[in-house]
Amino acid sequence: MTNKKILGIGSALVDIMTQIPDENILKELNLPKGSMTYVDAQTSVEIGKKLAYLGNQMASGGSAANTMSGLAQLGIEAGFLSKIGDDEVGRFFEKQMTETHVKPQMLKSATPSGRVQALVTADGERTFATCLGAAAEMCADDIRPELFEGWDVLYVEGYLVANPTMLDKAVTTAKAAGLKIAIDMASYNVVEESRDYFMQLIENYVDYVFANEQEAFALTGMESLQALDFLASHCEIAVVKVGAKGAYIKRGNEMVTIPPMKTNVIDTNGAGDMWAAGFMAGLVKGENLAKCGQMGAIVAANVIEVLGTKMDAERWGKIHEAITNL
What we know:
Elements: E1 6-9, E2 13-19, H1 24-28, E3 36-38, H2 41-51, E4 57-61, H3 63-73, E5 78-85, H4 88-99, E6 103-109, E7 114-120, E8 126-131, E9 153-157, H5 164-176, E10 180-184, H6 188-193, H7 195-204, E11 208-212, H8 213-220, H9 224-232, E12 237-241, E13 247-251, E14 254-258, H10 271-284, H11 289-303, H12 313-324
Parallel strand pairs: 1-5, 1-9, 2-7, 3-8, 5-6, 9-10, 10-11, 11-12
Antiparallel strand pairs: 2-4, 7-8, 12-13, 13-14
Helix pairs in contact: 3-10, 8-9, 10-11, 11-12
């Protein structure tokens, strides 16, 4: 598999990031620390108003969109399929995607574009209040075979399990077009709510699975290494990331441990997305599992040293240098 093209599918969201000085703010807003909570448009606006005094940063976000941006920066041809509104937030999203060299395949809706209030606590942990808006309206009828023409891998964000009819159509259509399927499990609470559906997807369609230890436990009820064995028996490559302890990767009988990298944690937002970007970049370039994992670790280690999921040209230069030196 060399220099294949990867199409991401997920929610087109704009992250509105706010660093909060006090965790009590999360309690006041009824947002469990470290979780992702879906909110309606009105609640999203109210949260924005309550946090306005702290200032914020806007950036295109959404799990799969972040991964595609990372892949494009690593020289892989990447695209992104989603739905946006005809509004300022949607235009901002599409422009940012294009600027990071991702090919946006945006369907349009009359509903406002999706946005995420991302609250970052002093320890770098992030808590999301997500209003999907137009992104939630992508439906099975939107999924047409020609969307997958010319792509080799479909990369799915786990949050899409909330929309099973659309996701079923996407994975079956992509498989019929000869694509491999990768899925990142998104968030432990999402996995808990849709455990059986996740399992059915992995058993029937998915080739590459990315999970952190909480997500792997939510799915299998097993600790990291047992969960890794279980997942690897149901797909081609399984990855379980264990935070500060690094990551485990398994393909068939081959198992690799990726050591952690020392970093100065500012904001863990996007760490998993960028780990997947580094790993998938290595995989489509035909690298061995150890190098793929090291590439994932390098990109993730860099993104947690900045606020948000976007890195400047200087930092990407540093990443490219570190990968070259592997």
